Amino acid sequence: DRRREAAGSPIQPVIKDVGEIYSRLLDHRPVIQGEIRYFVKEFEEKRGLRELRVLENLKSTVFETNERVLPKCEQAMRDNLNETLKRLQAANDMIHRVQEKEYETRKLQADKVMAREEKCIAHWEEFMKEQENKRAEVDEEHRKAMERLKEQYSAMEKEMAKYVSF
């Protein structure tokens, strides 16, 4: 306790001196507040009327824009949008017609291809029947030729058998 009391008394004046030095060197609030008051006073006295005129001009420009320019722009936009909408609808109708024609053309081509395929299939079936008939004819001819040859060879064997007995 004694040490604190002995140490506390000489330190107190030093802390006050440090606080004073700190406020003089680093605390700029009083100077800044004086500058702010000067700036506000100058602004209000010298620039106030000029700024008021600028604000009034700005207000009139905004009013004119809201009352005259904006309605003109809206009307022009409506007119142009209506025209654009009509053009888009016409283009859409044209596209639908082109698509319908293309669909009809493709369907017609598909029908033609299908008819050609059916015709080819029918022709192929007819060809195969014809080939089957020709094969049957050739087989029959072959069978008859084989019978004739058998008969001929039998006759030749009989004929040769006559000569063998000699």
Average pLDDT for all residues: 83
Distance between the first and last residues' Cα? 172 Å
Q: How many discrete domains? A: 2
Rg (C-alpha, Å): 60 Å
Helix and strand sequence: HH
Strand content: under 5%
In which range does the helix fraction lie? over 70%
Helix and strand composition category: mainly alpha
| Low-confidence regions | 1-7
Number of helices: 2
Key features of this structure:
2 domains; about 170 residues; mainly alpha; disordered N terminus
Describe this structure as you would to a colleague.
With 166 residues, this protein is mostly helical. The chain has two domains: 32 residues; 118 residues. It contains two helices and no strands. The protein is elongated and about 170 Å long.
Describe the SSE topology.
Blueprint: H1 2-25, H2 29-164
Task: Briefly summarize what is shown.
The protein has helices spanning 2-25, 29-164. It is mainly α.
